[in-house]
């Protein structure tokens, strides 16, 4: 395979080629670093590129796999990480000039888990200052679909890097939509995990009761294996769940029998909703029904866990 083609593989496809030794972690990492060097100026996705560290990690992954010590689907996969998440020995600016020289002396738990899974850190991605509002102190992040458009913030750098094939998969952080919005605006997949599923230790805080690290990926299956690598209990985060991490990838079997989905009529049929969005929602509902789910039209207010939504 031509190295220039490697970045266009899904994480799952690349993982299989690495497992079977048809592509090496060094080849994959080098291909992404070359693409970053050639194109990052367009998107301003990365604030810090870790070429030396990434190549060293890729060589270590390659040697481990050659010995037969394959760690799983993230082994040797080049990833990008929002610059809100601590990385040992690598600056973590949190998007602010005030933090321009901050170099953590330890990894966030999510990063430690990624490394334990064998992933390769390519670099740290752009974000709004302190992951708040819309200001970007290190230059605007550009949307790969249209360079005149924004990426949605605050995890926009991870969104644009993933969408522009400048990483295989990435991590963002979501307090009020900061994974989901960049993923939607950049045409990819973002998942905010349930609170407590991923440790927040080593993540610069926005709101302690809402912050959550999660994947920004190009496919649902890529997001599933990325989440599987970072999830798990951490005694340094007292709010993380002390429960086993399921195999999210195996859960993507497609059988939704018994699942009930509520489609809120007032939010779908509203005149402020673009017809294209409304049609997309209805098309998604039809697919869910084909897979066995029950989709019900419901009206506000809803009864949720004994209360009403929206709250009054």
From TrEMBL:
InterPro entries: Amidase, Amidase_CS, Amidase_dom, AS_sf. Residues 27-302 form the Amidase domain. GO terms for molecular function: catalytic activity. It comes from the Eukaryota. Belongs to the amidase family. PANTHER family: GLUTAMYL-TRNA(GLN) AMIDOTRANSFERASE SUBUNIT A (PTHR11895:SF151), TRANSAMIDASE (PTHR11895). This is Glutamyl-tRNA(Gln) amidotransferase subunit A. It comes from Geodia barretti (Barrett's horny sponge).
